[in-house]
Specification:
The chain is mostly helical. It contains eight helices and no strands. It holds the Pfam family Sigma70_r4_2.
């Protein structure tokens, strides 16, 4: 049974196998989300562990008719990341223990910016799932706001080909986002 799809039956989170399946399906995505928000490998690992612990404790409250397991886990993970971020702010000495290179690369993110961070992460994750031609076309034209002519010349393809790649890339991106159960 795929745990990322809404079904009439709730995943059996009460079984150890169900937790393993959920972790295998979503653990990596949750880790990348936490790492991006916290900028610390150890805290990101703690966040994933805490997410599954909270999910285990609240398993009776999970309703697959309301949200997919992935969506529910990301909601819990968001709260865990915010809690860890606030705790780190309350204990500034913890920042001195973190990897300074990772901290330098990660911007300060307040709780109000989490929604934007989640959306940006979801788009990046969806783009990773596209073919390279479509991904490059979308990244160069939409994300980097470059002209079709400039990008087409750089790629050595006609502008009309680039436009087709963007068109079909957007369609594929929409399908991927639906598969990820992300609504616009």
């Amino acid at each position: 049974m795929a745990l990322t799809r809404r079904t009439s039956r709730a995943p059996t989170f009460s079984r150890e196998e169900g937790v393993r399946e959920a972790y295998a399906a979503h653990g990596g995505e949750l880790y990348r989300f936490a790492l991006r928000g916290l900028g610390d490998v150890g805290l990101a690992q703690d966040a994933v562990q805490e997410t599954f612990l909270r999910a285990w404790r609240a398993r009776e409250r999970y309703d697959p008719q309301v949200a997919a397991l992935r969506t529910w886990l990301f909601g819990i993970a968001r709260n865990v990341v915010v809690d860890l971020h606030r705790a780190r702010g309350a204990r500034p000495w913890l920042r001195s223990l973190a990897d300074h290179e990772t901290l330098a690369e990660s911007p300060e993110v307040g709780p109000d910016a989490w929604e934007a961070l989640v959306h940006r992460w979801l788009v990046e994750e969806a783009l990773r799932r596209l073919g390279q031609d479509h991904r490059v076309a979308l990244e160069q034209t939409y994300l980097l706001d470059r002209s079709y002519d400039e990008v087409a010349a750089e790629l050595g393809i006609p502008a009309s080909t680039l436009r087709s790649r963007v068109f079909y890339g957007l369609k594929a991106l929409r399908v991927v986002m639906e598969e990820m159960e992300v609504s616009p």
